[in-house]
Amino acid sequence: MKKYCYINGKIIEESKACISPFDLGMLRGYGVFDVMCATNGKPFHLLDHWNGLVKSAKDLQLSLPVTREEYTQIISKLLAKSPYRNTSIRTVLTGGISPNGISLPADPTFFILLHDMDQFTPPEDVYKKGAKIITDDYMRAHFSSKTTSYIEAIKNQKNRNALKAMEILYTHDGLILECATSNIFMITDGILTTTRNNIFHGVTRKVVLSLARKNHIPVSEREITVEELLSADEIFITGSAKHILPITKIDKHKIGTGKPGTLTVKLSEIFHTYRNNY
User: Fold this and answer.
1) Range of weakest confidence among 36-45, 148-157, 217-226
2) C-alpha span between 259 and 236 (Å, rounded)
3) Which string of b and e fits 95-112 if b means at least 16 CB within 10 Å?
4) Cβ pair 227, 255 in contact under 8 A
5) Which residues contact 51 (CB under 8 A, 6 or more apart)?
6) pTM of whole model > 0.90?
7) Is residue 207 a contact partner of residue 274, using CB atoms and an 8 Å limit?
8) Residue 40: pLDDT band by 50, 70, 90 thresholds?
């Protein structure tokens, strides 16, 4: 089965793609990225993902080498070659090839990879039972941008696996922030609350907030203390691959009844109906 990707102006077989070892993405981890899902050949909220990528690129003083229209066309061509039912679209923009390993060159490196989204989606039984997450005292340096620097997340994967956790929740100064690859929500007394500051605002987070408001569910965006979170009635995390994933345990603390909550289940049903009809 041939797999295709886009790199620096061309769609080629994935096995033939290569990046210079002098690229700032390799030497310094200098780059930004986006992950978007597509179901039945259609990208989910492409414009929101594009806008997020543009913002992240601007924050790192990088210029995207394609327009939004060109990007849309490239994605369409790649999806036509995708062998997957649900496709993950990973877009990466790095600093490019630097002559001295520190100067930012004029031409960045830009590539798009396709993956089987199903390999990133948790098993169905996890959604029925709820998942565990663990905490880590950490705040990303460039939290408003989706950078390729995932040192903290990757170095903690062995610990996450050993503790049988689904995600890592970053906390700082007694406040919760975001998960390594997700945003987090809590429900207390029927109010849906999520963090606003010092985090990356994911597309799924945006969609969930919009759907909640449209369905007359009270919403609050504010600071949340660790103590508040642990005493919440319900908790869930959101992401392109996770959608809405119920959380029933944080470290050694049981959340609510220890089962996915009623409002979480309702929001998940609303989200999946919206996504399937998008």
Assistant:
1) 36-45
2) 11
3) bbbbeeeeeeeeebbbbb
4) no
5) none
6) yes
7) yes
8) confident
Please report the pLDDT score of residue 184 as a whole number: 98
* Residue bearing tokens 């993902």: 49
Residues 104, 47: Cα–Cα separation, whole Å? 28
Superfamily of domain 124-276: D-amino Acid Aminotransferase, subunit A, domain 2 (3.20.10.10)
Please compute the mean of the pLDDT values over residues 10-39 and round it to a whole number.
96
Could you tell me the residue ranges of all domains in the chain? Answer: 4-119, 124-276
SS3 38: strand
**Which residues lie across from 200 on neighbouring strands?**
none
Closest CA to 53 of 82, 45, 152: 45
Dihedrals φ, ψ of 227, to 5°?
A: -60, -40
pLDDT at 231 over 90: yes
Ordered strands of the 109-116 beta sheet: 10-13, 4-7, 109-116, 86-94, 31-39, 42-43
| Domain 4-119 annotated CATH 3.30.470.10 | yes
pLDDT over threshold 90, residue 39: no
Contact 187, 232 (CB under 8 A): yes
